[in-house]
Amino acid sequence: MNIPLMITVLVILLIMSAFFSASETAFTSFNRTRVKSMAEDGNKKAARILRMSEKYDRLLTAILIGNNIVNIASTTIATVLFTYLWKDHGALISTVVMTLVVLIFGEVCPKSIAKERPEKFAMAVAPLLTLIMTVLTPLVFVFVGIKKLLSRVFIRKGEEEECAITESEILTFVEEAEQEGGIDEQESELIKSAIEFNDLNAEDILTPRVDIVAIPLDATQEDVEAIFADCGFSRLPVYEDTVDNIIGILHQKDFYKNSHKPIAELMQKPTFIAPNMKIGDLLRLLQDEKTHMAIIADEFGGTLGIVTMEDILEELVGDIWDEHDEIVEEFTAIGENLYRVDATAELDDMFEFLGLEEIESEYTTVSGWVVSALEKIPEVGDSFESDGLAVKVTETDSRRVLAVEVSVLPDSEDDGEEEE
Predict the structure, then answer these.
(1) N or C: which end of the chain has fewer CB atoms below 10 A?
(2) How far is CA 265 from the centre of its chain?
(3) What are the residue ranges of CATH 3.30.465.10 in the chain?
(4) Residue 213's closest CA among 233, 191, 183, 189?
(5) Alpha carbon distance 398, 377 (integer Å)
């Protein structure tokens, strides 16, 4: 028996086993998005493995056939060799030795190495794998056919797993890219905002009716000038009798160019929308109608609020400030574990700022949450404890809350630390 030749063949078979194992891992774990980007930039090797991955069933079948052939061949040769050397104990020794060798050098190590650089490894082995797929075409055809037959038998129609990437998966990809340093925090927030953009309705970002600055139809020139000067806005709704009856939008530049004309001739037709309109659809509507403001009508035909183009864009890029905006700090520390909170702040933002778990509530603002908890029109000095917070009303007008003081109750702080 030619022992050196058999050992040489064994080594070659083990190298082939490592090759097949590493190839399987590389093609299973490479980043398809990254490879697609490389292919679009003109990388021919990336384009090749992208084409191969599109025929993944054939590719995987060829790899598994090749891997099993070399593993079975190596085990058979080793058994013959060890039986020749150690007679009756040869089979046992061969089983132990080959199990360890194949496991370590044919499976674990090559797969771990390929997992570190899957794209580079896949591009390196692609030519040889293409040749092997061609050689094994008859066997691949048979096994792929068997796989399809078994799929029809065991997987009922309509039960196939959904392969489309979900919104939550994309958000996870973005978070991983941020953690790995591929994108910075600002880019990550912008991408997340864009993905979640159309989850919001117009009513989620409106300026409520009580905060609307509007012009009465019968206002004098001096009155209009004073209103524009006081609010700093470039366009304002025009109403007749009551804000529930908005009949137009007056642009500041139109007014000053033609101040001698009556308001009715200068104002533009308003755009009315429903409260549940998605802000993505609203953005397209404003673009199509070449306007910057929409009036949200309530169920009774009155005015629920207004939404501007700036309100929509702020959901994507964050707050946009100009020289006329009054900067309001929504959360201000005024003592140890004591904060002043602007009542117009989002309820979820407050709980996030305080490091507490968000709560389920029918209200989106702190003001609505406070009114719900007190079950009355709040007055200065009213206080309550709810959802792990001690809350005291500090500012109101005649009908609503303007600001509150909040502190986290000790039990809630302990719970938060335990969760962390």
Answers:
(1) C
(2) 47
(3) 331-419
(4) 233
(5) 9
Per-residue pLDDT of the chain (420 residues; tens, 9 = 90+): 678 888 898 899 999 999 999 998 988 888 887 888 888 888 888 888 888 888 888 888 889 998 999 989 988 888 888 888 888 788 888 888 888 988 898 889 989 988 888 888 889 989 998 898 888 888 888 888 887 787 777 765 544 455 456 767 777 777 777 777 777 777 777 887 777 777 788 888 888 888 889 999 988 888 999 998 888 888 999 999 999 999 999 999 998 888 788 888 889 999 999 999 998 899 999 999 889 999 999 888 899 999 999 888 888 777 666 655 555 678 888 888 889 998 888 888 888 888 888 787 778 888 888 988 888 888 899 999 888 889 999 998 877 888 999 998 886 555 544 444
Strand partners, 254: none
The amino acid sitting at 101 is V
Give helix 137-154 / helix 118-135 axis angle, nearest 10°: 100
231-to-52, 234, 322, 324 alpha-carbon distances in Å = 63, 9, 13, 8
Question: Residue 1: what residue type?
Answer: M
Half-sphere exposure of 270 (CA within 13 A, CB side): 25
Q: Are strands 272-273 and 293-297 parallel, antiparallel or unpaired?
A: parallel
CATH 3.10.580.10 intervals, the chain: 202-317
Between the alpha carbon of residue 235 and those of residues 81, 220, 287, 308, the distances in Å are 91, 17, 16, 10
> What pTM value is reported for the model?
0.55
In 30-55, which residue ranges form alpha helices assigned H by DSSP? 32-40, 44-53
Query: How far apart are the C-alpha atoms of 161 and 317, rounded to whole Å?
Result: 36
CATH match for 331-419 among 3.40.710.10, 3.30.465.10, 3.40.50.620, 3.40.50.300: 3.30.465.10
Task: Give CB contacts under 8 A, 24+ apart, made by 161-169.
Answer: 167/195, 167/196
**Going by CATH, does the domain composed of 202-317 fall within 3.10.580.10?**
yes
CA distances from 1 to 5, 51, 140 (A): 9, 46, 35
Q: Which DSSP string corresponds to 85-128?
A: HHGGGHHHHHHHHHHHHIIIIIIIHHHHHHHHSHHHHHHHHHHH
302's tokens: 């009155």
Report the C-alpha gap between 31 and 155 in whole angstroms: 28
Q: Shortest CA distance to 78 belongs to which of 164, 5, 10?
A: 10
